[in-house]
Amino acid sequence: MEEKLEKTQKKDLIAAWVEAAAIRAAKTAAEVLIILMGSNIISITDLDWLYIAGAMCWGAVLSIAFSVKGIPEVDNGAALPKIGNGKRGE
After folding, report:
1. How confident is the model at residue 25 (pLDDT cuts 50, 70, 90)?
2. pTM, whole model, 2 decimals?
3. What is the dihedral sign for C-alpha 33, 35, 39, 43?
4. Which helix (H) or strand (E) holds 65?
5. Where does the chain cross the membrane (predicted)?
């Protein structure tokens, strides 16, 4: 069942979504870093840091893209477009 959101509720939910999406993106980027660092057995100085930074950025971008569909931490996983339209629901 959907209910309309007030303007302040909508802003609060969008702010919560942005915060949760940013945290997820940072965690995803860190996971990519750990995976790529762990794949190099030789030395940390021999890593291709530009490649790793690019992969971390792509991981963060993909995480944010997936978060548009919904983040469980915000409004029971409501999708961002639904929140932006001022609707609440499951």
Report:
1. very high
2. 0.79
3. positive
4. helix 49-67
5. 21-43, 49-68
pLDDT at 88 over 90: no
- Among 60, 82, 59, 88, CA closest to 69: 82
Overall number of domains in the chain: 1
Question: What is the chain's length?
Answer: 90
Taking Cα atoms as reference points, which of 17, 35, 14, 43 lies closest to residue 5? 14
Closest C-alpha among 55, 73, 59, 58 to residue 18: 73
Angle between helices 7-38 and 49-67 (to 10 degrees): 150
Owning domain of residue 26: 3-88
